[in-house]
What does this fold into?
Amino acid sequence: MKFLCLAYGDEKDWNALSKREQDELLAGFSVIEARDLDEAIELVSKTPCAVARGAIEVRPLREW
It folds into this structure.
């Protein structure tokens, strides 16, 4: 199942991350694949945005 992930955060928290950590997360949004919502939440909880105390909105995507 695919999920749209929208990242929100404070710029000062983002700037506190190392360059390597910042390079691991596409800023703004991404599409991920996971078994279900629980796995999607587990995956995004380890992203630089989440580590920097940002918020990530996770929405399931429908196949058209």
